[in-house]
Amino acid sequence: MTKLNKLNTFALTLLITGAIDSIRNLPASALFGSTLIFFFVFSAIVFLIPSALVSAELTANVDEGGIYQWARLAFGERIGFLAVWLQWINNLVWFPTILSFIAGTAAYLIDPALAQNKYYMVGIILSLFWLLTLVNLRGVRVSAKFTSFCAVTGLIIPMILIISLLIIWLAMGKPLQIELTRATLFPSWQHTDNWMALTAVMLGFAGMELASVHIKDVNNAQKTFPRALAFSSLIILATMMLGSLAIAFVLPADKINLVNGTIQTFAYFLSAYHLTWLIPVLTILLVIGSLGGVISWVISPVKGLGQAARHGFLPPFFEKHNRHGVPQNLLITQAVLVSAVCLAFLFLPSVNASYWLLTALTTQLYMLMYVIMFLSGLRLRHKLRYTGDTFVIPGKQAGAWIVCLLGLIGCAITLLVGFIPPNNINIGSSARYEILFCSGIGIMLLPILFFYWYQNSTVLTAPPLEEPELESI
Question: What is the pLDDT of residues 79-111, one digit of tens each?
Fold first, then answer.
């Protein structure tokens, strides 16, 4: 890419913002009322910014990017496979949550009560995911322009609208469900369940390492990326925090629905302003925007596993591609596993409980991957020679240590609070939640032992990836 065609600060800011910002996560954050402001700021400091800086440095200085390659170079093939497995399996659990958001939003076109019908939710989720899988199996690719259109339609327009409606609501002196006072802004240390908000917020900020793949296409990356990072972080923080507050201000906590809370809030706002005719329009926009985001993710997570398969971690069965060049067996296996995960909606007493369980599982798995990424960042700082014209974390070795330690602290706190059952969601007994939660994590991690054994018992037939030359700084 020539210098003239490289990304500038504005273009890179849009790319990073589009990769992270999501209106889907707003209801989960809104559940925790005024304390969500503290959690958004805290999460930005200990996770959003550190993950962006570390992934940018690794992408800029390792020829073949991605978490598998970073962890492999830092700690060996097995840790590399563990990292990419966590990245893939967390997406496996994530799919039902994003599809349940689509199903819950679409219910407003028929009957809003359907969003609390477990059988409706499971049926729509399975139908949508298998449809998207079949589309990808035929090699149909969605153009970049269509994907951008979906992002604008389903994210930017609704996000601007919900924040604007909140400003009008406040200006008109309408009743508020929460108060912003010194006593309510900070979570109580005596009530640890308040810290459950961190799970939703951290998941909303996850994925910055995916946006950093553009670092090599950036003009004057050493200055452009930090500026774009600062702008995008502020945009993400502001829009997600204000969007969550819009829901928390208007709806009582016990009335917030995790799968259709966004359109629920829009409906409340628009009814108050006598603009109910806009509700179906917004519903369609949110559904289109969400589907546009899911399409590319159906096939994207399997690419990392395909890389690991070249090192013998997966049987040849999973390397098979169809005539369209699509890894069909991995895609079909993924669809079967997503279908099994969806059954969580049938084993918990409410759709909200199922949604939260899957959100908490996704966050735990993703945080484990980020632990490996931050440790890999520190390790590779001592192994790779970074040239002066690539992006590096400011502050030399001390800066890298501070950033990585902040990220590790954020991950550790999130992992700990993930085991605390929320008290404002009907999850049944705490014991049942803990059993399902711990069993879910165990089931997701157990296959790793099999793949380690499988790699040990087979002889690699494919040539190994070339190792970049490692030198000390």
Answer: 999 998 998 888 887 888 778 878 888 888 888
**Residues with Cβ < 8 Å from 228, sequence gap 6 or more?**
9, 12, 13, 16, 218
Nearest of 72, 25, 38 to residue 304 by alpha carbon: 72
Q: Is the alpha carbon torsion for 220, 222, 223, 229 positive or negative?
A: positive
Residues 6+ apart with CB under 8 A from 340: none
CA distance 91 to 304: 12
- Per-domain residue ranges of the chain: 3-456
Rg of the chain over Cα atoms, rounded to whole angstroms, equals: 22
Identity (one letter) of the amino acid at 250?
Answer: V
Do 328 and 133 meet the contact criterion of CB atoms below 8 Å apart? no
Residue 266: which of 243, 289, 287 has the closest Cα? 243
What digits encode the pLDDT tens for the residues 362-386? 888 999 999 999 999 999 988 877 7
Cα of 103 vs its chain's centroid, Å: 19
Element (H, E) at 75: helix 67-75
Instruction: Return the SS3 of 116.
Output: helix
| CA 379 to centroid of chain Cα atoms | 25
Q: Judging by beta carbons within 10 Å of its beta carbon (0-12, 13-18, 19+), is residue 253 exposed, middle or buried?
A: middle
Q: Count CB-CB contacts under 10 A for residue 398.
A: 10
Q: What is the rounded end-to-end Cα distance, in angstroms, of the chain?
A: 28
CATH class, domain 3-456, is mainly alpha
Structure confidence by residue, pLDDT tens digits, 441-459: 888 899 898 888 888 887 4
Q: Average pLDDT over the chain, rounded to whole?
A: 79
- The letter for the amino acid at 110 is I
Measured CA to CA, the distance from residue 436 to residue 383 in angstroms comes to 41
Q: What is the pLDDT of residue 467?
A: 47
pLDDT of residue 427: 63
Shortest CA distance to 130 belongs to which of 355, 298, 323? 298
